[in-house]
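Record DUF3429 domain-containing protein, 148 aa.
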Amino acid sequence: MRTPNSYLTIILGVLGIIPFAAATYISWNNHTFLGFSGFTLFSTYSAVILSFLSGALWGQLIHKDISPLGRFLFISSNVLALAAWASLLIHIPSLSIALLLLGFMSVFWVEARTLVLIRSPNARYLNMRFVITIIVCVLHLAMLYPHY
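=>
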């Protein structure tokens, strides 16, 4: 049985895809929104969401007594957030998007390992995150296409 929080998680996760899709559309059609290119909208939103997900990992691990693997995952959450920030400083669009793509793949991997480590695996949540991560990664790949 799903709880109200699980419905909210699904709704927010799905709604979170909309800015990625909109920015991809704007970029592919060479439009701007509020004076910003699709690339700028996409990369900044991507970095913010990647940082948010990394912070959520931090929050899951901060109060846990963790093993050496747990410490590695804990540090990984910080590295991923810093990598998201660094990707915004790179003035090579395809490299920036590629780094963000790798960040989303990595944050999912780290989150899945973290949930197992803290003995809190939630199959529905991980399935939802997997599907959303796949969609977000495909949109990152779509953003890479016009830049070559």
